[in-house]
Amino acid sequence: MSNWKTEADIRAEKARNAPPPKMDAVRKQELEAILQRLGSVTAVFQMRADALPVKSFRRLSELMDIYIAGGHRAIGEGQDFVHEGVKLADEETRDLHKLMREIFNVDGGGEK
Predict the structure, then answer these.
(1) What does the pLDDT look like over 32-46, one tens digit per residue?
(2) Residues 11, 15, 19, 21: is their CA dihedral positive or negative?
(3) I need a surface site. Which of 12, 32, 50, 78 has the fewest CB within 10 A?
(4) Model pTM above 0.85
């Protein structure tokens, strides 16, 4: 096995070891505006769903709340949750699994 590295190998290694790029102020404002709109959608959903007799459906807003909380945390950590996805905290993951069981009668892995 050779100790020589190609230019692509060197660039990939540098990219893996580099600190995450800083989020610019404009993108941060855009992401915060998106979260505000998501919060508005959640509020409207809750208001409309409260009139329905299906409690498990009304609880979908709790899933939305978990997503929004993850988005806020991502922005605080300098991550773009729209492009990189939302990474859940351990407590949020437990809440998500619990909600999935209660709403859809499946565990987090999709098993009944």
Answers:
(1) 999 999 999 999 999
(2) positive
(3) 50
(4) no
Q: What pLDDT is recorded for position 71?
A: 95
In degrees, to the nearest 5, what angle opens at C-alpha 94 toward C-alphas 83 and 98? 110
Average pLDDT over residues 66-79: 94
Query: Beta-carbon neighbour count of residue 81 at 10 Å?
Result: 20
Residue by residue, DSSP assigns the chain as ------HHHHHHHHHHHSPPPPPPHHHHHHHHHHHHHHHHHHHHHHHHHTTSS-HHHHTHHHHHHHHHHHHHHHHHTT--HHHH-PPPPHHHHHHHHHHHHHHHS--TTS--
Q: Are 73 and 63 in contact (CB under 8 A)?
A: no
Return the domain boundaries, the chain: 25-104
